[in-house]
Amino acid sequence: MKVYISFDYEGIGGVTFWKETMGDPKWNAIATKQLKAFIEGIKKANQDANILVSDSHSLGDSILWEQLEDVELVRGSPRTFYMVEGLDSSFTDLVLFGYHTAIGGSGMMDHSYSSSAIYSISINGELLDEARINAYYAWELDVPLSFIYGDKQAVESSPGYPDIGYCISKEAITRFSGKMRPENQLLKELFEEGQKLGSKRVMVKPKAKKDGSIYPLEVEIEFADTARAAVACILPQLTKVTPRKATFKTQTVGEFYRLLNAITTLCSSIKQIQ
Description:
Layout: E1 2-7, H1 25-45, E2 50-55, E3 72-74, E4 93-99, E5 118-123, E6 126-127, H2 130-140, E7 145-150, H3 152-156, E8 165-168, E9 170-174, E10 177-180, H4 183-196, E11 217-223, H5 226-232, E12 239-242, E13 245-250, H6 253-267
Parallel strand pairs: 1-2, 1-4, 2-3, 4-7, 7-8
Antiparallel strand pairs: 5-6, 5-11, 9-10, 11-13, 12-13
C-alpha cells in the first residue's frame, strides 16, 4: 500500500476561523494530532504502508514535522502541483484530509482554491472544489480516491461519496460557525478509518461535455475582483469574457493544474500594489 495524503486545514475538527489556520501553534498541534490518529490506524493495519503527506494549506507549513513517524512530508511553497506535489501512478490511494466545500457550498470557510484570488472555477461546466481538482488529477495518473475527511457539507458533496471511506469532523451552521464533534470521538474514528483504508476506492474523472468528450478541458474562472482578473489575463492562454471572468482550454488536468498555480501566483502580486 502506498498512500498519498493531501492535507488542508479548513475541514479539521474544531477549526472555525481563518486566523486559526495561519500558523497558530495551538491549532497546528490539534491538526497534526488528528492526522496522526489516521496515520496510526493505517500503520496498525498495514505495517509496511508507504505514506507521503502533502502539507497543502497556504504556504505548506502547518503540520508539525517532528510529530510524524516513518512518514515523508512535502512542505513549503511554491510547488508545481501544490496540493498533490509528488503524486504519481505508483500510489494506491489518495486521501483528502481536512477539506472544505467550494464557494457557495454551505460549508465552513467555503472557498475555491484561493480565497483571496478566485471566486469560482469550473471545468466542462461543473463547479469545482479542491477535492475534485485533486481527485481529477489523481484519475489522470490512475490513482483512486479512497478517503475524505472534512465538515459534513464537504464530505457529502465530495466526488465518490458515499462509495469511499470518510469521516465527518463537524457540521457547518454558517461560514464561520459550526457544531463540533468531541475530539476523543474524532480521534477514535480517524484511527478506525485509517485501519480500513483501501477497502473502498473510486476513480473520479472530470465531467464529460455534451458531445461525450472530456478533453480539451473547458475552464472558466471567476476572480475575486477585476484587478485579479486583469493580472491573470496577462497569461496568453486566458481569454477575458467579463470584467471578472476568463476562460481557457487545456489538454490534460495536469496542464490545467500548472496553469491554475501560475494564475494564483500572478494574482498574489496585487497585494503589493494595493
